[in-house]
Amino acid sequence: VKTILITGATDGIGLESAKQLGEQGHRLLLVGRNPAKLDAAAAAVRSAGASSVETLETDFAELASVRKLADQVLSSVDHLDVLVNNAGTVFDKRVVTVDGLEATFAVNHLAGFLLTERLKDLMGASAPSRIVFTSSVGHFQGTMDFDDLGFERGYSIMKGYSRSKLANVLYTRDLAAELAGTGVTVNCLHPGTVATHIWSGAPWFARPVLAVVKRVAMISPEQGGARITYLATGPEVAGVTGGYFDNDRQLAPSAIAQDAAVGRRLTEVSRELVGLA
Ligand SMILES: NC(=O)c1ccc[n+]([C@@H]2O[C@H](COP(=O)([O-])OP(=O)(O)OC[C@H]3O[C@@H](n4cnc5c(N)ncnc54)[C@H](OP(=O)(O)O)[C@@H]3O)[C@@H](O)[C@H]2O)c1
Questions:
Q1: Does residue 262's CB lie within 6 angstroms of at least one atom of ligand 1?
Q2: Closest Cα to atom 17, ligand 1: which residue?
Q3: How far are the Cα atoms of 160, 199, 211, 214 from residue 204, in angstroms, in the given order?
Q4: Nearest C-alpha to atom 14 of ligand 1 is from which residue?
């Protein structure tokens, strides 16, 4: 029985993966922002067969809330086999969080970054252990401008999203290098184009087309979730680290994603932004 924490566990691929991991009989710690959805997710994961289920309410748009989550985990768990950083969202218009950060970058990258930095010693003490990030094929469009990380000079939903997903790949690779030889593996994935609620964040004019694409061309949340489950507990990837996976296969991520100097700088800048520097 493994102890597995999964964020964004209340909907979409995170919820489906949590149910699949529950079916495998593990102990699940489910993280979400909505208490009613957390209760429903816990019930579903329990009835799937999880040996135990706990819920942790956290808003990833607030660093204080993520700090509280890390404190709660560190005080209640002495062993963590798998950390799945999956929570993610899109913002049609530029939004600034209570911490003064562009919200896509804050929710999709900085929150998981802060949680992982706070839990990485625990992961080391729990080795062999695994850290997984849900990135996206969208990272191929991503740019990393350290002089304007928050798009004060011009925002679009895709620019914001693809940068945040590029950050997931860069941090995966930088952390994998840092943790090489410790028995902690770090990998990320594109889950496929999945029919989940994330698409309701798209601009209004794209929605009619998306509704059709969702029905005919997207995979189900169960199928997308299975790709997280593969990286979380699949015996095939034991010992594999620093990888970007698509359809359960390791592929080369974008050229910027492979630039170790950019990855190092992102880690340093992120440490400052979340108050760990
Ligand atoms: N769907 C795709 O085609 C696709 C493709 C590539 C990558 N991805 C990635 O897959 C991951 C999961 O997305 P999904 O498609 O499953 O979408 P989803 O159905 O919208 O699920 C997103 C999850 O993240 C949670 N979340 C969002 N904002 C949060 C916040 N501020 N604080 C805490 N939790 C928050 C949501 O909580 P609520 O239940 O409260 O909303 C939900 O549990 C994301 O990282 C996304 O970027 C998806």
A1: no
A2: 198
A3: 17, 11, 11, 15
A4: 12
Q: Probe ligand 1: pick from 11, 140, 158, max atoms within 8 Å of CB?
A: 11
Q: Which secondary structure element, helix H or strand E, spans residue 72, and what is its range?
A: helix 63-76
User: What pLDDT digit, counting tens, does each position of 16-54 carry?
Assistant: 999 999 999 999 999 999 999 999 999 999 999 999 999
Rounded distance between C-alpha atoms, residue 180 and residue 185, angstroms: 8
Mutate to test the pocket of ligand 1, among 63, 89, 188, 231 (most ligand atoms within 8 A of CB): 89
Measured in Å, residue 181 CA sits from the centre of ligand 1 at 31
Q: Which residues pair with 56 in a beta bridge?
A: 31
For 164-190, the pLDDT digits (tens) are 999 999 999 999 999 999 999 999 999
Each residue's pLDDT tens digit, 251-264: 999 999 999 999 99
Looking at the chain, how many residues does it have?
277
Please answer whether residues 103 and 61 qualify as being in contact, where contact means their C-beta atoms are separated by less than 8 angstroms: yes
Hey, which residues does 84 pair with through a beta bridge?
A: 6, 132
Instruction: Give the pair of three-digit tokens for residue 120.
Output: 């990485």
| Beta carbon of 112 within 6 Å of any ligand 1 atom | no
Ligand 1 center–CA 224 separation, angstroms: 12
